[in-house]
User: Fold this.
Amino acid sequence: MTKKKFVLTIISLFFSLSALVLLFTNSQYFIYLAIAAIISTGLYGYFIRQENKELLRVNNILNEELDINNYITAYKKVKKKYIQSKDDILLDELLILEAKTATINFNDIKEELEYYINLEPNFTDVQKFVFYQSWFKYLLRQQQLMKATLLLDQMNILYSHFPNSYRHLINNLTINKLRLNVYKNEYIHETERVLKQLLQSRLSKLNFISIMYLLGVLSFNNNDLKSARLRFEYVLKNGKSLAIVEEAKNHLEIIQNKTDII
Assistant:
């Protein structure tokens, strides 16, 4: 809850309770306090809509503009307006870390991941889930697929304990399973079918490019170099500073070398 919304909640409750008391005492001031309560309630709804718009704008910096540094700056600025517990602040730190896993600089990310290891036993289930999500993506890039598989199993267990307000995180598990299939080169046809279906849905630019990269890896692993080239070139052209841009570039160099040999 933002500080503005908290203040408005207190004011609205004060006016509402005061109006209720005056109603039973037949006070002439009842109507004024009732109007004030209605106005403050309306302002409360207005601020909720404004907060949602601001959060959407900030999320779009990451999901549509692919500007991770500006996203982190904007996210921290917005969150300063909120009244937060220690758990809320820690969750925000872990969410920012998870966003950083999309960047190219792996070394800094690993240092931050290792920093939170000693704190992890005291994490809530949701904090662990977000933390494991960051580790999962890092492990995939390092080709530590057995560790990534075990971590995904733990994330599934955590998810089973989540309240309804966090059920949307099932999307992370679905994409993670597809990522793992791609890197292991398993369930190829089914994985490719699902990824192509996802491309037809309403995806953010970040997710669209990520899926194009996964399809490129599938094509590359199965020697469909023409399709792989097209998909990696798309990632290279549109991915800006995402980590998968560097990986797509590496694949394109290998494809070019193979083509030259042929």
